[in-house]
Design a protein that fits this description.
It contains nine helices and ten strands. It is of the alpha/beta class.
Length: 268
């Protein structure tokens, strides 16, 4: 049974979603962040085309950036009232994600000229969509998450695929061998993770860890019996680099995978 079908059979359907907050931490990502922001913008456009009543906010958390990441982000902030930037000096993926959620959900919302201010949405009707500044979300990314949310999911774990451009083919082969694309997969990626704001708050939010803040939150959600679904129906393309931004993060894992020797051939 697919994740969507399992959610649809949940005995307790969840409230509809009125607002979506996308949170994207960035640390010196000027080689990737433009593509990442453009992809999120396309996903937001698609969601609001299909569901114009859903408000969308994109919060880019610029953590200790010394490159052009802030300047590139500023172009989106100036052009699109849905985008905001939050400069921080935390040097932590978990703390950056948590700060982004606070600012996106609790902070003042930018408004287009002539638009009235609106009360902050109830957390039970707010969805938090998380990705990374070196990743490109698909156009159905937000639409698909809300479909799962309204069918019964409290959190959705999407899949990721390393960008093959510039990546060692043997390393990519090893990664794909260990991470088949399938529904109900066992993996957790901060670059492709959505959660209802009320569940996020009940589970304590992102911990201020340098890495594995996503796993810690998902473990807490599951321990509280929230419905967590995994899907390959909204796959995110992420950087295949092996020089890691975070210790024990995705790049570190790829580097360790690349160091593994293939099994010795056995004779007949």
């Amino acid at each position: 049974m697919s994740g969507a079908a399992a959610a649809a059979r949940s005995p307790q359907r969840r409230p509809g979603i009125d607002a979506v907050a996308v949170v994207m931490p960035a640390h010196n990502e000027d080689q990737h962040i433009d593509r990442a922001l453009r992809a999120v913008q396309c996903a937001a456009d698609e969601l609001q085309r299909r569901r114009p009543g859903v408000a969308v906010r994109v919060m880019v958390v610029l953590d200790s950036c010394t490159d052009r990441s802030a300047a590139i982000t500023a172009g989106y902030v100036d052009a699109d009232p849905r985008f905001s930037a939050l400069p921080v000096r935390l040097r932590s993926a978990g703390a950056s994600r948590a700060a982004g959620v606070r600012a996106a959900v609790l902070g003042p919302h930018r408004r287009a000229p002539g638009q009235r201010s609106a009360p902050l949405p109830w957390p039970g009707r707010t969805w938090l969509a998380n990705t990374d500044a070196d990743s490109q979300v698909p156009v159905n990314w937000l639409v698909r998450q809300l479909e799962f949310a309204e069918a019964g999911a409290d959190a959705v774990l999407g899949s990721v695929e390393p960008d093959p451009v510039g990546m060692d083919p043997e390393l990519l082969r090893r990664w794909l061998e260990r991470h088949p694309f399938e529904e109900n997969h066992p993996h957790i990626y901060g670059a492709n993770f959505g959660v209802r704001a009320s569940a996020y708050l009940a589970a304590g939010g992102f911990s201020h860890l340098e890495t594995h803040e996503d796993r810690t939150l998902v473990q807490s959600l599951r321990s509280l019996a929230f419905t967590v679904l995994a899907t390959d129906s909204m796959r995110v393309l992420t950087s295949g680099r092996t020089h890691a931004r975070a210790p024990q993060g995705f790049g570190t894992y790829l580097r360790s995978l690349g160091r593994q020797r293939p099994p010795a051939a056995t004779g007949s």
